[in-house]
Each structure stands twice: as C-alpha cells, then as structure tokens.
Amino acid sequence: MDRFERQYILPGFGKEAQHKLEQAKVLVIGAGGLGCPVLLYLAAAGVGTIGIVDGDVVSLSNLNRQVLFGEGDLGLYKAETAAHFLKAKYHDIKINCIPEFITTQNIKAIFSKYDLIIDGSDNFPTRYLVNDACVLMGKPLVFGAVYQNEGQVAILNGNGQNSINYRDIFPDPPTAYEIPNCNETGVLGVLPGIIGTLQAAETIKYLTGYGETLVDKMLFYNLLSHQAYTMELSKNQDSKKGIPSSMEALEATDYAVVCGDGDSIDWEEAFALLNKFPGGTLVDVREADEFPKLKGFKYQSVPLDLIDEKHQEWLNSELILLFCQSGVRSLKAVKMLEKHFPGKKIHSISGGIEAPDSPIYK
C-alpha cells in the first residue's frame, strides 16, 4: 500500500497533485514553534525536498511547543536534530540541513535552491529580510506568526509582480523592543502548532493547486475564543520604498538598524569597547536554561525580568553591554537601564547569540 494513498484518493487531488509535491523544493526558516509542525506535515505529505535553516540550539524552554525535540536534544542544533528525525522517519524525501541563521550574506545562495519559502522566524529583522529577498527573487512566501493567544497566516508574493508582500501590511518596521516575542510574553504550545499546521496546509494547497489558498489574504485566529476570520489584503503604494533595489543592495542593508535596533553594536565592536573600558560589564539577559552558553568570556547572567531589581549592581560600571538570544530582549534591557543611568554607555549586541559574528562560532 502506498503511504500517500489517503491523499491521492481525495477528489480533486489525485496522483498528479502528489507528483507536484514530490517535485517541490521548500525552504523552512526556523525549526521552532512554527517550523516544527510545518516540517512534520510537509515531510509526511511527501514534499520531495525540504530545506531547514536555523542556527539556534535546543533549550529546555523550547520543549512545550517545539515538538521535534526532547530533553536528550538540549544544546544540539535544531536544524541538525530536526533533519535527523525526519530522515529516520521518511527515507524517500531529501532533507537539506543548514545550521545557520539567515543573513543578508547567505540568503541569496540559500533561497536560489528552493521554489517556495516558509517563514517561521520570530523577529522583525528576519521577517523583513526574508520578505524583501522573496520580492526581489520572485519567491512565494508562506507567512505565519503568533503573539500570546493569537496567530496569523498568509501567502505573500504568491501571484507574480502584483502580489501583496509583508511591507504592504506593515510598511514601517516596529522597533525590536515595541513588540515582544514568545520568550518574553509566553505562549501555549498548541498555538504555534495550529498556526504552523495551517502554514503547512497552505503550502500543500499552493504547490498542488488544491482548493482556495490564502494568496493575498491573511487568516487571523484566536486560541481562546476559536474565532477566525480572513481579510483580503491590498497593495500599499509606499511599500516598495523600503525594499532594496537589488540583491546587491539588500546585502549592504543592515536590517537590525532598519528595524529600529539603533542602540545596538556588533560583537566585534562590543569586545573593542570592553578592551577600551576595562571597568565595563557584559550581561546575558536570557533565562538560565537557554543555550548555548558563552565560554571563555567573563559575563554576568541576569534575566530580563530582574534587570530593574538588579540595576544597582552596575552603578559603578562605566560601560554596560547586554546580549540575549537574538538581540530583542537585550534592547529592552537597554531601555530599562537608560532610565536608571541616563548618559551611561549602554548598548545591546545586535543579533545576540544568533548573530553571524557571535563568539559561539569562533
């Protein structure tokens, strides 16, 4: 018996649609709360080639929603662990593992190998970078996002040059500290499971032409009330102004700065400042159970929710540098400390542990 029999006996689907899935090449950005259900269902459905790009490692706090991982995977790369799981389960599909974060420098080479992009990221610099690259390279983008008890799904750039893109909906990026991610606000694991599964469903429908898709539409879902509605999206005449004119221009764009990360510096600048100001302090604002840990450097660990309580510890520090997993929480910590220490040199390290120049890669 064919393992896809229940799919191709569906009226309107058939073996032709199954063949389209087998020929498809799909890239999933992020093997997190959204990416895990996306990967599970695309692999189970028989998508022929699946790429997984994620430079993060598994932490204990991930396990309530990132269902490809268990306690034995703590500290391991998510992309590699997810790829190993899927390869063991489905030997007839090709899984490409890319244990890196998507950046302006690698995005063109990675995207060029795939027909469709699925965004499971959780920060605005990545979302805008992915959107802009999809527009410039003509790639359809299956978008998903969650915030507390609500989620959204849409297919962007899925209808040629006149398609809706992310900047049509949100032309101006919020600053990183204006809208928190699930590390700060919390999330029930089932919500990204639902939204990620919907992303997988829309991907299958788009690739095969089966049913009505969310091209140029956005689905809104509320977990607490189970209310859901779909909104038709419209073009914003100013949306193209924020998109770089070419991939070369995109490579020269600093998306951390574009998304309001103005108080940030990179790791190289951070260590140069620490050498210049020996009385400076390096602070990790992640939770204690988050990985990977920095080795070979002296730093303090103070979770974000304790920054106000502990701020007196840095009264005599001439410089305070803060980092987290992606640079979001550390920016919030900068704003909190600036209220206590106006005029003091306080910076967030852009991209945090996930930054391409992070010392964990050296």
Automatic annotation (TrEMBL):
Do you know which PROSITE patterns this protein is assigned to? RHODANESE_3
Q: Quote the catalytic activity from the record.
A: [molybdopterin-synthase sulfur-carrier protein]-C-terminal Gly-Gly + ATP + H(+) = [molybdopterin-synthase sulfur-carrier protein]-C-terminal Gly-Gly-AMP + diphosphate
Which sequence ranges form a coiled-coil region, renumbered to this chain? none
What SUPFAM superfamilies does the entry give? Activating enzymes of the ubiquitin-like proteins, Rhodanese/Cell cycle control phosphatase
| Family label | Belongs to the HesA/MoeB/ThiF family.
Could you say which EC number(s) this protein's record lists?
2.7.7.80
Q: What's in the keyword line of the UniProt record?
A: ATP-binding, Nucleotide-binding, Transferase
Q: Which Gene3D superfamilies does the annotation name?
A: NAD(P)-binding Rossmann-like Domain, Rhodanese-like domain
Function comment = Catalyzes the adenylation by ATP of the carboxyl group of the C-terminal glycine of sulfur carrier protein MoaD.
Per the UniProt record, the source organism is Aquiflexum gelatinilyticum
| One example GO MF annotation | ATP binding
Identify this protein by name: Molybdopterin-synthase adenylyltransferase
